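Might you be able to consider the sequence and fold that I enclose below?
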Amino acid sequence: MHRYTMVDSDSRRRSTLSVDDIMDITAEPYRRRILSHLSSIPEDRCSVAELIDALQSKGTGDDLSEKRLRQRLHHIHLPKLRDHGLIGYDDEENDVRYIGSPRLESFLDQMESPGDDAPGEDS
């Protein structure tokens, strides 16, 4: 199995992602959208409330309430991304900081398609 090491600009080792890790992370549309949003904002960080607004504004097609989406982010998606070293997540401050991975970003760029925002539709 191939493993990819992510390195900060000061050459500190951040984490290692295998191909299986990348596939697992990107299999979930919300995680792709979270990473896409965080990588696209200039400050590379936002509050959980801002992240929820951004996710809901993209029309995910599953009509999760704000409360349900907040629960899923807090208990599932943000911890998983944090555990893989892709984000910093302070659940007490409700702050999310993007760390990312050039290799993962390249993979996500290749995965994106015009129909990615509409689950269940053929592209």
